[in-house]
Queue: 4 jobs
Job 1
Amino acid sequence: MAMTYSEKVRDHFANPRNVGTLEDADGVGEVGNAVCGDIMKMYLKIDDGIITDAKFNTFGCGAAIATSSMATEMIKGKPIEEAEQLTNQAVVEALDGLPPVKIHCSVLAEEAIKAALDDYRSRKRDEIVHD
């Protein structure tokens, strides 16, 4: 059975936004799915509690790339607290849906953002300890 993807999924796969790395990232999160082999790395630039930039590198299928792209678009310019509330379901809805077998890709995007925010927090704690 062929999978059908929404126009938005196809667009974000063909023209992904925010691909790349941030050399001076304030938080970096990397997550993977052993079952499908997808790996997602998220880079965040955070200024005064606001995510000013987000980039990603994803090794995976079209749905993984599309969800990474959409997720970075959804958190840029947002406060950390708001980005933390981003659910995989919100990413799926923003993409006008995903085939059920590809929902795990959106979960990776949510987990990558949370991992990058956790990394940011642990770096902040280290700064406070060392000041």
Job 2
Amino acid sequence: MTYWLFKSEVSTWSWDQQVAKGDTGEEWDGVRNYQARNHMRTMKVGDLGFFYHSQKEKEIVGIVEVIAESHQDSTTDDERWDCVDIKAVRALPNPVTLAMCKEDPRLTEMVLVNNTRLSVQPVADAEWKIILELAGDA
């Protein structure tokens, strides 16, 4: 299994909206960055990801699961843009803020700490466990 982080502005798509979609989930659409798209192209059904509220909140709030592999993004006819479908798995007991990640010396190599603008990014196994620990979910 591979781990990921999906970033969204609360005003665009929030954790509560993701949860409301239930087991049918939702396309992670609208991504227009080649690196983020390429990450989605490598995802497999069953991969897990953190759901991150960007902009003002800047915090990891939940865990999602990839339920459909890369396919054409339905929000565009441009064949260059793909997306995956994800569903909410569970909320974290305590959100993990970007500041917490930056302060933790174990997370200095985490993509989120070093590239806060990338909307879909990989999370290393060790980083996944540390985030769960910080969230009180370990």
Job 3
Amino acid sequence: MLRSNAAHPGAERDVFPHVKDHSPSVLAYTATAWRKLLKRPSGWDGPVMSAGDCYRFQLSSPHVDLALTGPKNRAELEDNLAAVEKGPLSEDEAKWMRAFGRKVHG
């Protein structure tokens, strides 16, 4: 179980390259970086991520098997599931989310 999100992508560098041959089950949490990824950071004029985007970001990694989600209600759960059904991120989506995550992280 490890933290992995657009604002904290360190697992991609520090963990994933070392476990790929061992195939452990990886559960990712804090997809929204404690909701920080759901708010527009100062100086950002592009789109803001949704919770569903955050889960897609996590699950687009071939190393992540499961993402924890914490919807407040049924509507949020349905939104999250609809987003995940879109499948892995496109290159453009990944580029945008990584840039957004860097801006949120500071």
Job 4
Amino acid sequence: MKKELKEQIIEQLAAQLEANPDFYLTDIEGLNAEQTSALRRACFEHGIKLMVVKNTLLEKVLDKGSDEQKSLCQTLKGSTALMFSDVVNAPAKLIKEMQSTLGKPELKGAYLQDCAYIGAENLETLINIKSREELIGDIIGLLQSPMKNVISALQNAGGQTIAGIVKTLSEK
């Protein structure tokens, strides 16, 4: 491969990592063409982009990143595939689902929300990570809960409580 082509690929990988800062490193070595096709189809259905990369080129991109990203360089042995998604835990869920049927892909590492996760033992942790939207939904639900209780109590009192509150406020 020519040096110019390598530099182009490195720039494309850097742009991809900048556009999608959350990514997974997986091992898909040993899958036959049919299994690889099934994996790619499943990735497409779940909104996950799968990209097979050369370890040396990816290492050059990761070396330019944060210390957490640099720590992922130790996982770059054998065949490596990158998984990107807008939903941070979608690739982890897909990896677990596909492992039950194909035995692969195997998680090498992941970089999510500015933290590096190295090794397949972190798969359950990655599955349970909530996306930004899920966290916002949880917070809104927690904030709405007390308000719903107050409104429900006021409605169940048959209007007597509201009259009492209005009378108290008018006296002050």
